[in-house]
Amino acid sequence: MSVVSINNNNFEHEVLKSDRPVLLDFYADWCGPCKMVSPVVDQIAKEHPEYKIVKVNVDEQPELASKFNVMSIPALFVVKNGEIVNKSVGAKPKSKILEMLKVV
What we know:
By secondary structure, the chain is of the alpha/beta class. 36% of the residues lie in helices and 26% in strands.
């Protein structure tokens, strides 16, 4: 599956109403640790179609970043049935990100 870019217009449909657990990746283009996490998130999207993987650019979508109280990036949130069930801040290896998803 491909990664979906999220904005205010598609947030509810793509995240809150998803029939699969969603991994939200809050990032910025200038963020070094985000650049480390991004290819890992892309890889998870290709290898695990049971999850929906979405990205939110905090510079372009400050309202969504605020809604999730994102103060540091990268910030990863797992949303299932419209509820946040797991979250993490900072660069994480693939194994830790997959662990976050397995709790759901």
